[in-house]
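Input sequence (578 aa), recorded before submission:
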Amino acid sequence: MRKLHCLTWMLVLALVLSVIPGAADEQEEKPAPIGGLTFVDELEVTIANLVVFVTDKKGKAITDLKKEDFEVFQDGEKKNITNFKLFTDEIIRHQLEAQERQAAPGSTPGPEAPVGPVPVHMVLYIDNENLDPLDRNRVLKQTREFIETNLHPPTKMMVVSYQRSFTVLQEFTSDPNEVLAAMRSVRKHTGGHTSRDGDRRDIIDRIDKIEAENLSGSRYSGQAEGSAWNEVYRLIENFAKEEVNSLMFTMDAMRQVITTLSGLPGKKGVIYISNGLPMTPGVELFYELSRVTQDSSVLTKMFDFDRSRLYQQLAATANAQDVTLYTISAAGLDMGSGYSAQYSSAQDGLSASVGSHNMTDSLRFLADETGGISIINTNDVSNGLERVAQDMYTYFSLGYPLQASGRDKVHKVKVRLPEHPEYKIRYRSRFVEKSRETRVQDAVVSSLAFEVDDNPILLEVETGTPSPASEERWLLPAHISFPLNKIALLPEGNDYVGRVVLFVAVRDRDGRRSDMVRQEHEVRIPAEEYEIAARRRWGIDTRLLMESGHYKIAVALLDQVTHQDSYKTINTSVHPNK
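Predicted structure, token format:
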């Protein structure tokens, strides 16, 4: 997938007001900061919350456990569970009904607002590039039934498809009909899996032909046979290289979707549908060639294509963003004995088994590492989707105090049910403690897909008329401003000084996102000019390098003194018809 590089900083801080501040109190040894909002960290208590699923051996949710039944360990140290909640579909519906009654016209407000349910954000990710159309249509038919039955508030679903670049087919909604309409639009795509599977079959047929002619003695001398096998090896190597290239695009697209969810509240998950992804591209072909040539050294070559680290990195990204992955293999039931539903001819049983596991082990790994569910080796995914629906609405929430380090840090977590060894327990085994700056960046990314209504600093973003930068790109002027009295200024000599960090990201209509831009800025005001300056806005001018099209621009400002953050998004177009 072509990476979107549509954002480049051209200019830095520009003062757009003539400031004339007032006098400072010289008698105070340590004057308090002027301006700004409340110090948000003064009373902040950090609680780590874990979502835990408990089922019996048949997969049915267990809902009668108490706080005392659980033990939680972080980095090997037992933690005291201070927050404990059970969520079920019935409890969530009651919470929604209480909110509706409270908001109804003519209702009398109660002493306390009703507790709302935890929001759930799910992405239905249809990977056309790695799907066979027939398999896709079968699985999507079953998935539609799952959506019709289970999509309702507080769950919202987004639909994206991927074919060398991912496209947002439907923004987050709780309306099943909108999701189903987006799914129907996927049928026109043919997908890339069929073409690559044909290339794989051609190589296997080539191996079978050489082996048959060699056994019959009808064609090859020793030298000619060696040349033929070398040719096959080159075909396998080229195939594996193409698979690696395709996999890199796929991983990058999945990573972008996951990070889009980073700043959203509540539970987050991705339902990923494909025919599988190779852990080691071409592995079954290397096994097949090794078998017929009786040359085990061929197997050592396949380790050059091992890409298990990509899956480890993707799982780490999902865990860092609290995103659970639910993976579905559309390939259907593995028939064994070297046969598949697509081909009538047989392949060696070992190489076929290796190939099958190679495509599904990746899906198992991603689900297991993020606390999700993998649905594989079945022609009917309905039962697996029922378990996904159960996860959406039935779970335990365990919270314990976290001694915040103020930086990004990965923690290992273990949850036990010492008195109930008969139950299966599933949860995310790692979570990332995030610094405030990282949380702000997450919120910026999420605001590109989901409105973030949080602007206490009163940010404003204005864009001007774009000017040509090259044949295909334009420079879009942008002016970002805020009232000076909304940030904290500390005395420094004869000046008052504030320090802010600005974050900007851009997303186009197809869902492609730019890299995050981070800029630190100093706000310096002569002390005697502060009173007048405080009544005006401070501005930052920049230019964004963008291609023609429609965009959403997300901006955040972080006051480094008060740790207050503020967000603003705007929609704009850059010569969309050119």
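Checked by second reader. The chain is about 30% helix and 30% strand.
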